[in-house]
Amino acid sequence: MGSSPGCSTIRELRDLNLGWELMLSRLQYVTEEDAKACSLGNKEKLACLSLEWSNYSNRELDQHRSVLDALQPHVALELLKINSYEGIGFPTWVTSPNFLQHLTELCLDGCTMCEEFPQFGQYKSLEVLILKRLSKLQSLCSHSSSTTFPTLKYLTLENLENFERWVASKGEYLTFPVLKNVKIENCPKLMTLPEAPKLKVIELAEEKAQLCLSIFRSRHVSCLSDLSLCVNDTEAKPTLELDQDREVSLSELRLHGCSFLFCSSPSQPTFGVWK
């Protein structure tokens, strides 16, 4: 939606009593003035908002931020998706701990230029968090000595090439008391799982075995009911944690690769994970 040929203009939304869901795409054609004119902040019935830029935007990066700032929704928003945003940081309405307190789902995808991210733990109602292709994201929390995601149930991390820890500094503590489903794909620097005593489902796809092995080190592995592992590491060797006898309650197990989970010769003892 923008000023390119054949497109409607975003200003046409100003007087519409929008409810439930709105998707705005091709935002590289939208100006800050047009974004302000659509008055999203007055649309209190709008629950779901998706904002998408082109991957081939020729706009200045600071215009991305000014347009996103002008698209500030009503505080009652429940779902927010931002795709291919190329600002260096997010505007205040995204990062403020006093805004978006009703948000239950957040998806950030393809924000490759972004260096400053929200403190994701500030969203106290968040149940679903999806982070994809955020090439400069290193942790979920950067400056909190103790952080809890009190309502988060579903977490997806995909193609986060520099994501290496859950909290920024040693000694900081992060918990997910009700998290039950985790999907992690191509996060090569991440070596451990978070503290999540209710975790039931893990889907993991990585080149290296370290993160997979951390699953078997976790004291909560016995609570898992569904485990999907795709690990192509052919150099990884069985380690001590695989020899431990752990009681598990898996009802479904899917493996691709994962050669390090199997004995290389009949003379080797069966690993505890299979017992």
From TrEMBL:
Pfam families: LRR_R13L1-DRL21
Domain of life of the native organism: Eukaryota
InterPro entries: LRR_dom_sf (IPR032675), LRR_R13L1-DRL21 (IPR056789)
Domain R13L1/DRL21-like LRR repeat region intervals: 10-133
Protein's UniProt name: R13L1/DRL21-like LRR repeat region domain-containing protein
Naturally occurring in which organism (per UniProt): Triticum aestivum
Lineage summary: Eukaryota, Viridiplantae, Streptophyta, Embryophyta, Tracheophyta
